[in-house]
Amino acid sequence: MRASRSDSAVALGWFHLDSRGCASAAHRSRVRSSVLGVLLAAVIPFQSAAAQPAKDLADLSLEELSNIEVTSVSRRVERLSDAPASIFVITREDIRRAGVTSLPEALRLAPNLQVARTNSNSYAVSARGFNNSVGNKLLVLIDGRIVYTPLFSGVFWNAQDVMLEDVERIEVISGPGATLWGANAVNGVINVTTHAARDTQGALVAAGAGNLERGTAVRYGGKFGAGGHFRLYGKYFDRDNTERANGSPVRDGWDKGQVGFRADWGDSGRSYTVQGDAYRGELEQVAPGMTRIEGLNLLGRWNQKLADGSDLRLQAYYDRTERDQPGTFREELDIFDVDFQHALRPFGSHRLLWGTGYRYARDHVQNSAALAFLPADLDLNWWNLFVQDEIALREGLQLTVGAKLESNDYTGVEVLPNARLAWKPAPDRLVWGAVSRAVRAPSRLDRELFTFPPPGSTTILLKGGPNFRSEISNVVELGYRAQPTTAVSYSLTAFYHDHDHQRSVEPAPGGGFVLDNKIEGSTHGVEAWGNYRVTSSWRLSGGLVLLRQDLRLKPDSRDFVTGISALGNDPNHQWMLRSALDLTPRHELDVIVRHIGALPNPTVPDYTAVDARLGWRARRDLELSLIVQNLFDSKHPEFGSPVTRSEFERSIFVKLLWRL
Q: Where does 456-572 show beta strands of DSSP type E?
């Protein structure tokens, strides 16, 4: 990451985290070899044990797709068609047929997300507004592991990765999920779920190359003991620098290697999961030096069904991340998290779920002359207790009420209530409404950030607010989901968010600026998406989001520099169309058209991008794909200031997928 003392974004507190570093060809070769060499040696002897791929979701009917099971809405398994929330599911087949090569690119497939690429290695991702490079109102989980950083309550997207071929689904909820998932689940929840090890048996090799990136991945799954399954994987990629509008290069290319494993064993009554990942990457940046990121995590989960039919779940994980950004800061972050929940079998008209959890973070920062977090070493603690009751009022009518108490070291106990009413007037229709309160708790940036002027000056440019409080959103939603015919399904949601105590940048006594909570206002809009099965071999889908924001400074605010624009830069509309066509039993043609409206401040022109994929299944175990992004557009910007922002050019990528 680069942080110049003259960078006005940093000087005003918008901690521009577009992490960069440089990597030599020799380093890339060493990482690639270490990640993939051992796994290749393990895969080759076991080629005959490879499992055949599962039935493609493209072969499923819309009725079968509506019965996909999700867990993010109620923290229990339920059918997508019954979930009373604005939830979109990105399936394994969606990811494969889109030809995407990274997790943020896969998230573009969700019509209820705003995804903007800021440079070669960074993205801005949000739902329902407030999108920026340090977005902080979206909670992201990967296999139950929360991946936001307490540094700024957002996600370093260049540190989060999965083997996309192992993803079972990505559940994307737009709207608050704080009652079940806690603070920071204000505008949405993303839950990435990978397959159980039993569903990834045999060997798989994926390799691809194009004009802007190259990558390789290997995975092998096998059995152990009585009913146990495991998988090992490794992947490596490198991506090139981007360019500005004038053709000058932006030093933001990067490479990264990652390895991991998962093991599952047990039976339907009692089951266990252990999984983990380790990664390392280097990102180019403007001198001095290079950005280095590395980390590892280890997660364990136990599920138990009791004799009375109720369920217990206990999960714990350890997550370590390191980020070295010369000229800015170096961070070592250790997180330990334990979570317990108990789901009681319906008694009478009630289905009760309760749980508790504790989270501890040890954050160590080596500060620079330009930017500091003070104190440099800090212990952070969170605990929570939640309860939710699903009440069957009558046939087809259900009321869900719940609340979460969550404690943090900055503001104490926050109360996060929620109520949802779901009515099914017919088996193929769902009407639902919800009212919720969600908060975005303070981060280290809000309380403990200090930026300094050049040597010789004594005025601190910006500092965290010692009394910075939680940002609050009260939300009302109304939704309708239906499948009127076997070929058509759709979802509509209207929402209204009332915001208070949003972050502002106020003049500080004696000079400089301080972070405060003096912006309020509202966000409202409509989300819609649907599917149409034209024939047995052709499916169309699309989505639309209309967004209006009415944010304003409070009467006592003096934020005359950054103002409302610092909270995010969002289009007032966006839409998407997708076509998935089986030309023959062996040939596939997929086309995605995305239109993003103009961003207001700083101004980014609207754009329409067309991505296409041509796939050929040479054999049942061998697939070749040609992917072209920005087919009819040589290049376009997506985010940032006109002077410094990257523009993203047309890319061509060829991929081989081989199941051994």
A: 462-463, 471-485, 488-507, 513-535, 538-553
**Structure token pair of residue 219:** 């995975």
Kindly report the pTM of this predicted structure: 0.91
**524-572, pLDDT tens digit by residue?**
999 999 999 999 999 999 999 999 999 999 999 999 888 898 899 999 9
Extended strands (E) in 130-269: 138-142, 145-146, 167-174, 188-194, 202-210, 213-224, 228-239, 242-243, 249-250, 254-266
Query: Which fold, 8-659?
Result: Maltoporin; Chain A (2.40.170)
Q: Are 524 and 495 in contact (CB under 8 A)?
A: yes
Q: What is the dihedral of CA 285, 286, 287, 292, to 10 degrees?
A: -10
Taking the CB of residue 182, how many other CB atoms lie within 10 A of it? Answer: 23
DSSP state for residue 368 in the 8-state scheme = -
Q: Residue 221 carries which side chain, given as an amino acid letter?
A: G
Q: How far is the CA of 421 from the CAs of 175, 478, 524, 538, in angstroms?
A: 15, 10, 20, 35
Element (H, E) at 126: strand 123-126
Cβ atoms of 170 and 191 closer than 8 Å: yes
Query: CA 521 to CA 413: how far, in whole Å?
Result: 24
* Closest C-alpha to 545, from 583, 519, 573: 573
Residues in the chain: 660
Q: In sequence order, what are the beta bridge partners of 357?
A: 339, 384
Say which DSSP state 630 is in: S
Helices (H), 131-174: none
